[in-house]
């Protein structure tokens, strides 16, 4: 049996008891085709791709390294956290509610 918990509050989500929701997020660099230069056309992108694939196959690539490529994330949410996420997906309210003492 698969054990699933809400990635926000930690509540156990049992099949058949409560609806479980999945949030999928993809973060990628924006590309403006108007910024294409002659240098971009001269680069050998197939060679770069071949080198990256070879490094990954040999275990040399660091999966935690942020190289500016696409990043995919998946989160399981309970009904209450889904509602909270849809209301404030970037958690802006949470950061605005912080108050610090005048020490």
- SSE series: EHHEHH
Provide the spatial order of strands within the biggest beta sheet.
1-2
Q: What global shape is seen?
A: extended
Query: Cα-atom Rg, whole angstroms?
Result: 21 Å
Q: Indicate the mean pLDDT.
A: 79
The N- and C-terminal alpha carbons lie at a distance of: 52 Å
Number of helices: 4
Tell how many strands the DSSP assignment holds: 2
Low-confidence stretches: none
Which percent band covers the strand fraction?
Answer: 5-15%
Major beta sheet summary: 2 strands, antiparallel
Helix content: 25-40%
Q: Helix/strand-derived class?
A: alpha+beta
Could you walk me through the main structural features you see in this protein, from its secondary elements to its overall organization?
This protein has 103 residues and is of the alpha+beta class. The protein has a domain at 1-30 and 69-90. 32% of the residues lie in helices and 14% in strands. The chain is built from 4 helices and 2 strands. It has helices spanning 38-42, 45-58, 79-87, 92-96; strands at residues 21-27, 71-77. The protein has a two-stranded antiparallel ribbon. The longest helix has 14 residues, at 45-58. The N and C termini lie far apart (52 Å).
